[in-house]
């Protein structure tokens, strides 16, 4: 049905590596894979196998769980998106970011887990949560850069900040020049 690879950490692992909870849920116990070093695994590549056809309205959703926390949604693959590299933002152990319950609620998990679940595509928030977060952080950093630049040219008129009319053009020109001079500059914006 599916396989996973932990980039730079593993060979491809097929569904037999996961414990099947029921017809639509599988769990990989990270204790068996890396022990207590689970949070050093920062990405997973999940892919559908060639002979498996997932209905077009379904997705294979990927969740992660730190010891003592609930499962947290990370992303999904579909027939139209048969593979994805997903970031694994492990929740703090003991946090309550509940999204999926694959274990009994009264028994806190003792090890980190990766869960895979067949779900309705329409019910999922986004196929790649980490990509959305990266875009959001990038926008915030660029906005902060613009604000800091504008602030150095501001005047105050009562309760309003007054800036020169060409401030956006000046900022963008400076931004482009700095990016051309220093290729590492833009990497600082994309965390």
Automatic annotation (TrEMBL):
GO terms for biological process: protein import into nucleus. It comes from the Eukaryota. Residues 18-123 form the Hikeshi-like N-terminal domain. GO terms for cellular component: cytosol; nucleus. InterPro entries: Hikeshi-like_C, Hikeshi-like_N, OPI10. GO terms for molecular function: nuclear import signal receptor activity. Residues 135-187 form the Hikeshi-like C-terminal domain. Belongs to the OPI10 family. This is Hikeshi-like domain-containing protein. It comes from Olea europaea subsp. europaea.
């Amino acid at each position: 049905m599916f396989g996973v690879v932990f980039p730079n950490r593993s060979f491809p692992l097929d569904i037999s590596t996961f414990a099947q909870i029921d017809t639509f849920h599988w769990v990989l116990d990270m204790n068996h894979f890396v022990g207590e070093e689970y949070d050093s695994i920062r990405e997973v590549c999940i892919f559908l196998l060639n002979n498996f056809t997932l209905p077009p309205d379904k997705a294979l959703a990927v969740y992660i769980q730190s010891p003592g926390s609930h499962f947290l949604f990370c992303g999904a693959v579909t027939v139209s998106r048969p593979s994805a590299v997903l970031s694994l933002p492990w929740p703090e152990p003991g946090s309550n970011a509940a999204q999926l319950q694959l274990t009994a609620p009264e028994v806190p998990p003792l090890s980190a887990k990766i869960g895979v679940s067949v779900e309705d595509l329409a019910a999922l928030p986004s196929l790649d949560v980490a990509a959305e977060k990266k875009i959001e952080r990038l926008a915030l950093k660029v906005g902060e850069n613009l604000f800091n630049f504008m602030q150095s040219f501001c005047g105050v008129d009562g309760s309003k900040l007054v800036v020169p009319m060409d401030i956006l053009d000046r900022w963008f020109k400076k931004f482009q020049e700095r990016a051309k001079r220093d290729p590492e500059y833009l990497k600082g914006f994309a965390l």
